[in-house]
Automatic annotation (TrEMBL):
It comes from Psychrobacillus mangrovi. It holds the Pfam family Thiolase_N. This is Thiolase family protein. Keywords: Acyltransferase, Transferase. GO terms for molecular function: acyltransferase activity. The keyword Transferase applies. Its EC number is 2.3.1.-. Gene3D superfamilies: 3.40.47.10. SUPFAM superfamilies: Thiolase-like. Residues 260-381 form the Thiolase C-terminal domain. Residues 4-251 form the Thiolase N-terminal domain. The keyword Amino-acid biosynthesis does not apply. It comes from the Bacteria. Belongs to the thiolase-like superfamily. Thiolase family.
């Protein structure tokens, strides 16, 4: 198997739902990151062998294979194909896995993997409409929404509302500190937003983090899914708009092109988990990927575990014995937002840049996914 490397990655700043990206088409937003990625790497668009993008709500402007349309908008030659995939919240992380598998096997040399989601222009579940789950499925499993799954997780692991709100407040604090210290500046491409008055706004800072998200303020929010429960809008991820992508290639191809990769893919895993409890998958996915890599959780320098809801990383910490100080040190989706199809490579780009900034070696990414699944990825920084 050939070694797969990450040459570079880029993302947009994340916009709040009905925020800065309200009037920006998602196919055009995806094209922005594709263009920037080839610009940063200097790789000829014609040499890219596939564009794999994650997108969860494939309806409206996000239907019709947005990976292909975005590549064409970005000026890639017509011989460069594109494919859009949906592994729920881990869609763009799975895009990285598919791309790296193609490269490792020798089938391809250069692939772009990424994702896009406009939760403003194509609201969550708009691709489902009035469709109901098959009775053959509901006879076998209790199918409930993620909010109710979250309430059950909280009860199973004996977490309190206070713990969830404290974690959420900390996410905002860490994100605001990261923005203040310029931690995201290198990974974000500024996007020109044309205003109704004819002016142009340059959007380059994530707009989700809030200064006033203290535990006291968060404790006043009403629960969303269960009146007697603990899950609120404040301890769950934000609905968001954004795009992200990474360029992957074989180490041999990078050498041939004279490129200096930033990291290598060490190991990948994907797993299914209880479709009712749904959000516990990152625990087993982490165990699997560590086993594949021949590493322990103590060997990993920093982790990104997606904050779909606050209890997800908290339960992950309990079950893996990971170091809380290494977890999402720049904040997570509760503060920075969760543009579904884009989140995997968004977090990977942040992880990549953190390893480079701190001189650390190993990073781990794990994301829970709808209907009970999860992906995990371990990368190693290349000196």
């Amino acid at each position: 198997m050939r070694e797969v490397v990450i040459v570079d990655g880029v993302r947009t700043a994340v916009g709040r739902r009905k925020g800065t990206f309200t009037n920006y088409r998602p196919d055009e937003l995806a094209a922005v990151v594709l263009e920037e990625l080839v610009k940063r790497t200097g790789v000829d668009k014609a040499e890219v062998e596939d564009v794999i993008l994650g997108c969860v709500t494939q309806s409206g402007e996000q239907c019709g294979n947005i990976a292909r349309t975005a590549a064409l908008i970005a000026g890639f030659p017509i011989h460069v194909p594109g494919v859009t995939i949906d592994r729920q919240c881990g869609s763009s992380q799975q895009a990285v896995h598919f791309a790296s598998q193609a490269i490792a096997s020798g089938d391809m040399d250069i692939v772009i993997a990424g994702g896009v989601e406009s939760m403003t222009r194509e609201p969550m579940f708009s691709n489902i409409g009035d469709a109901k789950p098959s009775s053959k499925l509901t006879e076998k499993y209790e199918i409930i929404n993620q909010g109710l799954s979250s309430e059950r997780m909280v009860k199973k692991w004996n977490l309190t509302r206070k713990e969830l709100d404290q974690y959420s407040s900390d996410s905002h604090k860490k994100a605001l500190e990261a923005i203040k210290n310029g931690h995201f500046k290198k990974e974000i491409i500024p996007v020109a937003i044309h205003q109704e008055d004819g002016s142009v706004k340059i959007f380059e800072t994530d707009e989700g983090p809030r200064n006033g998200s203290t535990p006291e303020v968060l404790s006043q929010l009403k629960t969303v899914f269960d009146e007697a429960g603990v899950i609120t809008a404040g301890n769950a991820s934000q609905m968001s708009d954004g795009a992200s992508a990474v360029m992957l290639m074989s180490q041999e191809k990078a050498n041939q092109l004279g490129l200096r990769p930033k990291a290598r893919i060490v190991a990948r895993s994907v797993t299914g988990s209880d479709p009712t409890l749904m959000l516990t998958g990152p625990i087993e996915a982490t165990r699997k990927v560590l086993l594949k890599a021949g590493l322990t959780i103590g060997d990993i320098d920093t982790y990104e575990v997606n904050e779909a809801f606050a209890q997800v990383p908290l339960v992950w910490l309990k079950e893996t014995g990971a170091d809380p100080k290494k977890l999402n040190p720049d904040g997570g989706a509760i503060a920075l937002g969760h543009p579904l199809g884009a989140t995997g490579t968004k977090l990977l780009v942040t992880l990549l840049n953190r390893l480079e900034r701190t001189g650390s070696r190993y990073g781990l990414l794990a994301i829970c996914e709808g209907m009970g699944m999860a992906n995990a990825t371990i990368i190693e920084r290349i000196d």
